[in-house]
Design brief:
By secondary structure, this protein is α/β, with parallel strands linked by helices. Helices cover 26% and strands 19% of the residues. Strand 9, helix 6 and strand 10 form a beta-alpha-beta unit. The chain binds 6-phosphogluconic acid. The site of 6-phosphogluconic acid has 15 residues, from loops.
């Protein structure tokens, strides 16, 4: 089990997006300097959209080494790319179509083929980039996660059977809102990343944030994200952090 999570509280949603865009940029630069490659997995939902938009703007856009960056998804709804529920479709509009990244380095999860086949194909695609065997696990440099009010993260929902088989890296599941088939990275992959950032904003999620971070009883999917060796950071806005005990927040007075 990794270290205790670090908590960062941003003043509001837009400051949170700026902090996240800075983290994306500095991690990309650091990884490319060290090993000439940066692998990141991004989430869907509405929360990361402000950060995504910033990534195509200055000062971030030209500072990120896009030519050495590989973008993957934490999860996807099994719908077409033009469907408003498509995580890839939204990210494309928000930033991908405005950045100079080689197309073959945008690894979207297949939405329109049978989910089990999609999971298999995506695992194969990851294997090529990470150049590892099926018995191993990919180690992402950076993963951004979101969290729902019910404590789900990625497409790992409360009460769902722990997805793993038949593919250990990518699972096909059904659930969430919209309640459709989805592909999701598994806990095994998420927990092997070097850095995992949760981005959570808004009052509606404050009670779940408190449960996840303060309740020792591990029940919710978001509580099962405990990187084996990597860092875990919760980036919250003030509203999402509003119910946390004072001692949980580093600079609370
Ligand atoms: C997806 C997600 C999911 C999301 C949370 C929070 O549904 O595609 O990746 O886990 O991060 O549901 O969503 P919001 O940011 O919209 O609240």
């Amino acid at each position: 089990m990794g270290l205790q999570p670090q908590i960062i509280v941003a003043h509001d949603r837009s400051k949170m997006a700026e902090t996240a865009a800075n983290i994306f940029t500095s991690t990309a630069k650091e990884c490319v300097t060290q090993k000439n490659l940066f692998t990141v997995a991004i989430s869907g939902g509405s929360t990361p959209r402000d950060m995504h938009k910033l990534l195509a703007e200055e000062p971030y856009g030209s500072a990120i080494p896009w030519d050495r960056t590989h973008i993957f998804w934490v999860d996807e709804r099994c719908v077409g790319a033009d469907d408003p529920a498509s995580n890839f479709g939204l990210a494309k509009k928000d930033f991908l179509e405005r950045i100079p990244i080689p197309l073959e380095q945008i690894h979207f999860m297949p939405g329109v083929i049978a989910p089990e086949e999609g999971a298999k194909n995506y695992q194969g695609e990851m294997q090529k980039v990470f150049q590892i065997k099926e018995e191993d696990f990919p180690i992402f440099d950076l993963i951004f996660l979101g969290m729902g009010e019910d404590g789900h993260t990625a497409s790992l929902f409360p009460g769902a059977k722990s997805p793993g088989a038949p593919y250990r890296w990518v699972a096909a599941v059904k659930g969430g809102n919209p309640n459709v088939y989805r592909l999701t990275l598994t806990y095994d992959v998420l927990n092997r990343a070097r850095r995992v950032y949760f981005l959570v904003s808004g009052k509606k999620k404050a009670a779940t944030v408190k449960t996840v971070l303060e309740n020792k009883d591990v029940r919710l999917p978001a509580q099962k994200i405990r990187p084996v060796k990597g860092k875990l950071i919760w980036l919250l806005d003030k509203e999402a952090a509003s119910l946390l005990s004072k001692e949980m927040i580093p600079d609370a007075s």
